[in-house]
Amino acid sequence: MNYKQIISACEASAHLVSMVPVERVVEFGYSIGLNSDTSVLDFCCGYGEMLNLWNEAFGINVVGIDIHEPFIVEGKTRVRGDRINLIAGDIFAYSDSKRYDVVVCTELSAGLFEDFASGIAFIEKHLKQGG
Ligand SMILES: C[S@@+](CC[C@H](N)C(=O)[O-])C[C@H]1O[C@@H](n2cnc3c(N)ncnc32)[C@H](O)[C@@H]1O
């Protein structure tokens, strides 16, 4: 049994605020074809743990934003490599001219947006064509 891997998965789980199992995060990343050329923007990233997992598994280049600064401060201590940029801030005040291959937001149906359609419209502004 590889205890180090088990402990590392437990630590990752503890840093996924949404409590999605680590395996599902990796399976989802695989199913949408993430690879080292993929750029990802994660709105409401929490500790940025999903980005950490995707970076480890697929080598993606990512930006994560969360309004709760302590999450970002702790998340930064867990970042491995130089392809993950975690930013403390409000997603509604965020401006970025770059367009991403993938934009994610776990809060689409959590009341942050007026309705689901306006949440989708918001994230689409940051997507590349065909993203
Ligand atoms: C349920 S947690 C999910 C975190 C992360 N996506 C995950 O799966 O671990 C929701 C997150 O949304 C963040 N959040 C809520 N409103 C926000 C806003 N206006 N701008 C940025 N982040 C926000 C909270 O601080 C919290 O970390």
List keywords for this structure.
single chain; 131 residues; alpha/beta; Rossmann fold; 5 helices; globular; binds S-adenosylmethionine
Number of helices: 5
CATH architecture: 3-Layer(aba) Sandwich
Helicity range = 25-40%
| Oligomer category | single chain
The class by helix and strand makeup works out as alpha/beta
Strand residue percentage:
15-25%
Largest sheet: 4 strands, parallel
Say which molecules are bound, naming each kind only once. Answer: S-adenosylmethionine
| CATH superfamily label | Vaccinia Virus protein VP39
- Radius of gyration (CA) equals 14 Å
Given as residue ranges, the uncertain stretches (5+ residues, pLDDT < 50) are none
Instruction: Walk across the major sheet and give the strand order.
Output: 3-2-1-4
Taken in chain order, the helices and strands follow as: HHEHEHEEH
CATH level 3 topology: Rossmann fold
Please describe what this structure looks like:
The protein is built from 5 helices and 4 strands; from the N terminus they run ααβαβαββα. By secondary structure, it is of the alpha/beta class. It has one domain: Vaccinia Virus protein VP39 (Rossmann fold). The protein has a 4-stranded parallel sheet with strand order 3-2-1-4, with helices on one face. α2 (22-31) packs across α3. The longest helix is centred in the N-terminal third of the chain and has 12 residues, at 3-14. The chain starts with a helix and ends in a 7-residue tail after the last helix. The mean pLDDT is 93. It binds S-adenosylmethionine.
